Amino acid sequence: MKALHFGAGNIGRGFIGKTLSESGFNVIFSDVNQDIVDAINYNKEYSVKIIGANQDKIFNVTEISAINSNNPDIIKIIASVDLITTAVGPSALDKIALIITCGIILKIKNKSEKALNIIACENKIKASSFLKKAVLKKLPIKYHDYLNKYIGFVDCSIDTIIPLVNKKDCLFLIAEDFKEWIVNITQFKGILPKIVDMKLSNNLDAFIERKLFTLNTGHAIAAYLGLIKKYKTMQEAIVDKKIRVIVRCAMEESGSVLIKNYNFKKNDHLAYIDKIFLRFENPFLSDRLERIARNPLQKLRKEERLIKPLLGTIKYQLPCFNLIKGIAAAFHYNNPNDLESTQIASLIKKQGLKNTLIEICNLHENSDALHFIISEYNTIMKTIK
Predict the structure, then answer these.
(1) What number of CA atoms fall less than 13 Å from residue 238's CA on the CB side?
(2) Stretch 288-296: mean pLDDT, rounded?
(3) Angle, to 10 degrees, between the axis of helix 217-228 and the axis of helix 266-281?
(4) Model pTM?
(5) Which string of DSSP letters, residue by residue, matches 146-186?
(6) Topology classification of domain 2-202
(7) Domain residue ranges in the chain
(8) The domain at 205-384 falls in which architecture?
(9) Please, are residues 201 and 185 in contact by the beta-carbon 8 Å criterion?
């Protein structure tokens, strides 16, 4: 069994690639970073140190190779593998779609009737369905029936923390023992792949939103608040008593919406938040805030981890004070090395915060949410001057 994985970064190597290797797949990584591609092909293996509650262990990932995503030979690989996964970031999915489309066309020309399943492992709701739509736009209509019969785009929810590591060995990673990979069982084509610890579900939406609007919401808010205070790591931010309280309360505010939407038991969800906080506090997994905060445009969309929970609290007339603080802090994030950050700063300077909120978050100009965020943004502005 062969798998092609797009994105040889932390999640790609430390979670998806590792899991596929454990499951017996020969893993081919694809990335635009030629240094990483060369390192994988030279070493043909890498190590992941797993940090557990009681003991640490080293897992060696073997039977691997890599190819640059811009290498034309990748089309042949797509046409022959049994599984494709991605961890490239949602903004790169459209580029990946073009490459996958070319591979599918070659697969059709080769008259292959072998099913191919594609799982986009991104922090985006129904990323695989999004990828499918992007592929269908690029794929000639005459091939759509083939795609619907033989190509499965499987939505999933993934959850683990893998921080950046400063090591001479550029492939070495540290990962937490906790990992969660839940997939929509109804979207597979052909025989279900046997993947270690992968959970099959026919009710994926609840798991996707539970993770995105709890872990990712808390992670983002901690990062944006921490950066205002010039902190560098998640560990520094989460031990700050004021930030800690805001993050915890924001996760509970978001959780109150999830409880309403999916009938989660309150005590169970609070226990889930407790578990996430323990992961945030783990000093061995402390991640850089700039990495967590990156791509703020995506994180501030209406259906994403910050705005959607806020709109839910307003809909149900629930507390939202701490979510507001986190969102306002996100609009203060200004990193010259992050293109999306500079775009937001430029929009605020050009057209003001109100119009920027309307444009990015798709908020109504008279909405309570918009006015709450503006008020908190101005409060933060006074404290950092």
Answers:
(1) 20
(2) 94
(3) 40
(4) 0.83
(5) HHHHHEEE--EEEE--------SSTT-EEEES--EEEEEGG
(6) Rossmann fold (3.40.50)
(7) 2-202, 205-384
(8) Orthogonal Bundle (1.10)
(9) yes
